[in-house]
C-alpha cells in the first residue's frame, strides 16, 4: 500500500440477516484514500453507504474483504486492538449533532478529553477553537450550541486528538446552509492539515467541496469522480459501470469498444 | 469522570431496583423469624404452665437447717429465671407402712406424711385437739417418746378405730415405691405419730374428688393427692398431714420437692430459647459445685438419686425448634429465588442506564475505554442510590412481613446485616457490570442471527429446566416438608416465566398477522396494532415481568388456599369432627357428651362381585349429621346422605360409595356372613373413607336391621337374649365429637369408658409441615407483589426514557391528523394490550401449577376427596384489572405531557 494511503478496502462484501431474510448491503467495494483527501460517498437510500462506512470505521465486520487502516488490516486483529487503533486514528461523526458530544461538558472540556497530554495541549485546543470559529463558545455546553457549532466541535475533537481519518455519516443533513458551509469549511481545514475525511451524504453542497465522489448503486461502486474528472468502475468481472447519463446513449445496451494497440485509450461507439 | 445526577427517573429507577433484592433477601429472614415466633406462641399457648415450669426434687433425710439453706439457694437460682413463679415446697415421705395398736400390726392402705404450706388450711377439719390438750397430752403420757402430730382422715380413723390423741407407728419406705414391682421397697426410719386432728377425705368412693374440695389441691402434684381405688375400696394411700417443722425434725426420710410454674410465657422464639437455657443452668447448678449444689448435697440421702429438675419445657422447645428447622429450608430456597428476581431488576437498571446514556457510552467506547473501566465508572455513579435503595429495601423488609405475613411487630434485631451488605454490593456489581458490558458494545450492533441464537438458547434452557423441575416435583407425593426443596420453590417462577414468555411471543406473531389486515380499524386502533406488530422489546420485557408478578401472586394465594382446604377436607375425612377418639368400650346409654357427638363403626371387609377390599363405615343416622364436619368437597349434603342410607327397601342395605372407586353398584360385603347392598349415590368423599381400595357408607341401623331380618329376629333385644351379635357389634368404634379433646376425655373418664388415640383437629391442623408450606409459598406471593410493582415502576421509567422518541412519534401522529389525546390513546391501547396479555398469561399459568404442587402437599393422598385448585378469581382479577387501569392512566398522563410540547421544540431536541 502506498505510503500516502491512509485507508484502503478491497472487495468488501456485507450480508445482513434480517427478520425477512438475508440482505446483501455491500457488494465487492474497492476504495483507496490518500492522506488529506476529502471523499463523499453518495447513493440513494439502501445503496449501502452507512454499511460501508461502518465497515471502514471498524464497527461492523465485513462478510468478506479487507479493510486496511494505515497499513493494518482492521479485521485481522483482536477486538481490543481494533478499539485501540480506532481510538488512536479515527473519529466517527454521526448525523445527529447531539450524538457527537458529551452533554455535560463544555466545548473546551470536550477537547481537553481527547487532547494528547503535554504542555502544548492547551495551545492546540485554542488553535482549533479559533480556527473553527468556536473560541467565543468555549465555555458553552452542547445544549446551548447550534447544530452547526456542535458538528464543527465534533470535527475539532478529531483534529485535537490527532486523528488521521474522520468518517462522517451525513454531517450536514440537519443543518441550514450557513451552518453546512461552516462545517464544510472545517472539513477543508482538517484536510489541509493532513486529515482524511470521508462523508456519506445526499447533500449536493458537499459534492462541490470534496476531492472525490464515490457513487454507490445497489451496494457496489458505480463511479468515482475526482475534481474535473469522472471515473467509471471496472469490476472484477470486467464489467464497466457507466454513469446513468451515458447509459442513455446506448439504448440497445451494446457498445463497440475501439482501442489502439500501444495506447490505454478506449473509445465507446454505437454498434 | 462522573456524569452528574440530573435525572429523577434514573435515580428513582436505581433506588427502586436496589430496594427489590435487598427487600426480598432480608425479608425472608424477618419472615422466618416472625414465623418462628408464631410457632412459639402457638405451641406455648397449648402447653401446660405447670408441666413446662420447673420441678426440682431431691431424696432427702429431712433436716430443718439444711432444708432452709437449700430452699434459699434454689430461690436465688430461680430468681435468674423471671418467667418462673416462686417455688412452692412440698415435703413428704415415700408411702410407708402404718402400724396400729399395742401390737403394732400393719394396716392398709400405706401412709404418706406430707407437709406443704397451706395444706392444713385447705382441709375440712372435723375434730382436733386444741393447743392445751396437745401440750397436756404430750407431758402426760409417753412423754419420753417424741411423736409427730398428724391429721388423719375420718375414714382412716373410723376404719382403724383411732381417736384424737391416739398414737401409731409409721415406717416410711427408704425409696420411692415402684409400681411395677411386687415387693415392697425396703423400710426406712420409723416414727411415732399422734393424731391431733381429723379431716374429711379429699376423695369419694366413686373415685372422684370430694365435693367442695378446696381448689388448693388442684395445684398439689396429683401423685401426692390420694384417690379412691374401687378394687380395694380404699384410697391408694392415707394422706397424713403435718406441719413442716415437725416433719423436718422427725428423723424420717422422703422427698423434698419444689414446684415452680411458668408465670409468663415467652412470646418470641429467641425468648423461649433463652428461657430454656436459663432453666438448664439451674439444672446444672443442682449438681454443681456452687452454693445450690452444696446445699442440695447437704440434704440428700447418701446413695440416693441425685437432685433432679423435671420439666416438659425442654421437649416443648425441641418441638418448636424442629418445626422452625423445617421452615428454614424452604424459606432459604425462596430467599434465593427472591434474590435472583431482585438481581434481574438490577440487570434492567444496567440496561436502562446505558439506554439513557447511550451517547456518552458510545463516545467513551470510541475513545478506547473498555468495559472494566466503564463498569467502575458506573459503579461509582450508582453507589449512592444503591445505598439509598438498600435502606428502602430494609424498611420494606421490616414492614412487608408485618402486612402480608406472620409478623405482628417490627423487629430491627431480626435483620442479618451481613446479608444486607452482601446483597447491596452484589446488586451494585450486577448493574455496573451489565452497564459496562453493554456500554462497551454501543458502537457495534448485534446481528439478527446472533440475537436469535441467544434468545433461542435461553428459551431452550428455560424449557428444559422447567420441564425437569415439573417432573422432579411430581416424583414425591406426600406431605414431607424436608422435600420442600429449591426445585419446588423455583418451579413456580420458572413455569410462570415460561408461560408468560410463550404467550407474549405468540401474541407478537398474532399482532403481526392481524396488523397486516387492520386497515378497517379506527386510526388509533390501526396505529396501535402496527406498534404491537413492531414489537417493542422493552415493553414486552416489562409486560413479562408484570405477568410473572401476577402469576406468582395468584399461584401463592391459590396454593396456600388449596393446601388449607385440602387439609381441612382430609381431616374431615380422617377425623370427621373437632376430636376423634377410638373407643375400646361401648358408650353407656346415659353417656352425656359435652357437645354434639356420634359414633361411627368401621370394618375392613371384601365386597363381591370382584373381591374388592372395602371399608364399610356404619353411621348412626340420628347423631351423625350434627356431630361431623362435612365440607363441600364431599360433593353432597350430609342430610341427603343420611336420608339416602336410611331409606331401607328390599333385602339389601342402601349404601353411598365414592365416585371413581371400584365398589360394585350392587353386591354384598362380609366374610362368612354376607350382607347385600346397593349403591344409591356416589359422592366425592365421606368421613371414615380411604386407606384401602373402596369405601361404603351405610346406616348402622339399616345394617343391623337387615341382619336381624336375615336371622329371623324381631329386635336387637331378642337377638341379645340368644347371645347373637349383630354385625356392627364387631365393628371398630370411633367417637367423633364437636367438643375439644380435653372436654371429651373428661366425659369419657367420668363414664369409665376406655379409649385410646385421641386426635384433635386443631392440633393436626397446626402441624409444622403445613405451617412450613404455607410460609414458604406465602413468601412467593411477596416476590410476586415486588415483581409486579417493579414492572409498573419500570414501565413508567421506560416511557420516561423513551420520551424523546415518543415525543417525536407524537409529533408525527399529529401531522397525520390525530389530536394529542388520540395520539396518547394509541400508546395506551398498545401498552394495555401487552400488559393484559401478560396478566392473563400469568393467571392461566397458576392453576396447573397449583394442581401439580398441591398434590405433593396433600397430607393424605390416598384418602378422598380430591380438592380442586382454589383460585380466588374475582378479587385477583379485580386487582389485576385495577393495576392495568393504573398503567393506562399513568401512560395517558405521560403521553399527554409528551404530546403537548411544540413540534419545533421536539424536532430541535431530536437534533
Describe what you observe in this structure:
The complex is a heterodimer of chains A (271) and B (911). By secondary structure, chain A is an alpha/beta fold. Chain A has a single domain (5-242), classed as Rossmann fold, CATH 3.40.50.300. Helix content of chain A is 28%, strand content 30%. Chain A contains eight helices and 13 strands. Chain A has helices spanning 49-56, 79-89, 107-114, 121-131, 147-161, 177-192, 204-207, 244-247; strands at 5-18, 21-34, 38-42, 64-69, 72-73, 90-93, 165-169, 196-200, 212-217, 220-226, 229-232, 256-259, 266-269. In chain A, strands 6-7-8-3-9-10-11 form a seven-stranded mixed β-sheet, with helices on both faces. In chain A, strands 2-1-4-5 form a four-stranded antiparallel β-sheet, with helices on one face. In chain A, helix 3 (107-114) runs parallel beside helix 5 and helix 5 packs parallel to helix 6. With 911 residues, chain B is an alpha+beta fold. Chain B has four domains: 1-47 and 332-445, no CATH class; 91-245, no CATH class; 450-575 and 764-911, no CATH class; 596-737, no CATH class. In chain B, 53% of the residues lie in helices and 16% in strands. Chain B contains 26 helices and 22 strands. In chain B, the strands form three sheets. In chain B, strands 1, 2, 3, 4, 5, 6, 7, 8, 11, 12 and 13 form an eleven-stranded mixed β-sheet that branches. The longest helix of chain B is centred in the middle third of the chain and has 44 residues, at 313-356. Chain B is flat. The two termini of chain B are 26 Å apart. Mean pLDDT of chain B is 82; it is low at 179-184. Chain A binds chain B through residues 16-19, 59-60, 80, 83-84, 86-88, 91-92, 96-104, 113-114, 147, 174, and chain B through 3-4, 359-360, 362-363, 365-368, 370, 443-445, 447-449, 910-911.
What keyword list fits this structure?
heterodimer; A: 271 residues; alpha/beta; Rossmann fold; seven-stranded mixed sheet; 8 helices; 30% strand; globular; B: 911 residues; alpha+beta
